[in-house]
Amino acid sequence: MKAFLDLLVQGVLTLNQISCGVGVPRNNSYREKTLESFSDYHVHPDYSLDASGTIDQYCQKALELDLKEICFTTHYDTDPVRKDEDPFMRIDGKIVPLSEENVERYIENVRRANKIYSPMGLSVKAGLEVDYAPHIEERLRKDLASLDLDYILGAVHCLDHIAISASKEAESYFKRKSLKELCQEYYKVLGKAVKSGLFDAIAHLDIYRKYGQDFYGEEILIAHRGLVEPVLELMVENDVGMEINTGLLRKGHKEFSPGLEILNLALKMNVKIIAFGSDAHKVSHLGKDIKEAYRLVEKLKREAKIKIETGAK
Ligand SMILES: [Zn+2]
Ligand SMILES: [Zn+2]
């Protein structure tokens, strides 16, 4: 596995050569993750209710930024308990149900954009950011199998049906739970998401920090210890990649998601970093801090390699 990762780092292997779909047929076509193939794999166009910017506006911006690849990952939130809040999307300014037919329209629009922009040097991919919860796993399996997607990003946004990643809801969950309880529950659900085999990668692996840090304080930065390791192991075993998400920096955090300690652990355990994403919710977010994230990962890999080669602890 280590030799494999080294080849990847050296650019000998491309991500095209990695099989990462498990159970879901997809047109896997990842590029190798180098600065030269600068890409953003977590982008919400205005199909997401909490986002603005059309697919074309994002693609124009991507050309300006000299991105080589952009993957749209509109929200796919289908918990029936949250049927009044979540299962919708926006098409041509209208709010419509998150039905198979409407998701197919979104995918068609991304494919149309790829036809227009790929001759200009921008590859445009169709993905979804899927909110995972154990009680909807089987339904997700059916839904996702019928969609023609390039990339499925798994995320745990909700615990007890409360969105801990949303400013309006997070505190109502935090008030009822200790930091330990929050992390125990979060990593338990995340482990199930990894094992489900539904996802190419896991989004913002420690997203509970987004609003949790203000509530619980600095202790949250180490609250993953002893809980995240089994999840990282499952990611290796199940061939599920990790995303480096830069969005937390725009919320005043100093570290990407996952934070430095988890990232280091993941690299040492040979978890594949298969995507970098800005989690853009408006056009001005596109590509934000992604080059810094690439550089950080490359630096950590170099350091880890030096440590292994010299036998230093
Ligand atoms: Zn998310
Ligand atoms: Zn997102």
Counting DSSP H or I runs of 4 or more residues, the number of helices is 10
Class by helix and strand content? alpha/beta
Radius of gyration: 18 Å
Hetero ligands: zinc ion
Broad CATH class: Alpha Beta
**What is the H/E order?**
HEHEEEHEHEEEHHEHHEHEH
Shape: globular
User: How many domains would you count in the coordinates?
Assistant: 1
Sheet having the most strands: 7 strands, parallel
How much of the sequence lies in strands comes to: 15-25%
Query: Can you tell me the CATH topology?
Result: TIM Barrel
Judging by the overall fold, what is the CATH architecture? Answer: Alpha-Beta Barrel
In short:
The protein is α/β, with parallel strands linked by helices. It is built from ten helices and eleven strands. It has one domain: Alpha-Beta Barrel (TIM Barrel).
Q: How does this model look, in words?
A:
The protein has helices at about 1-10, 55-65, 100-115, 135-145, 170-175, 180-195, 210-215, 230-235, 260-270, 290-310; strands at about 40-45, 70-75, 90, 95, 125-130, 150-155, 160, 160-165, 200, 240-245, 275. By secondary structure, it is an alpha/beta fold. It has one domain (about 35-310): TIM Barrel (Alpha-Beta Barrel), CATH 3.20.20.140. The chain has a seven-stranded parallel β-sheet with strand order 1-2-5-6-9-10-11. A two-stranded antiparallel ribbon has the order 3-4. Strands 7-8 form a two-stranded antiparallel ribbon. β1, α2 and β2 form a beta-alpha-beta unit. It is globular. Residues about 1-25 and about 25-30 have low confidence and may be disordered. The structure holds zinc ion (ZN) (2 copies). The site of one zinc ion (ZN) has 6 residues, from loops. One zinc ion binds near residues 42, 129 and 279.
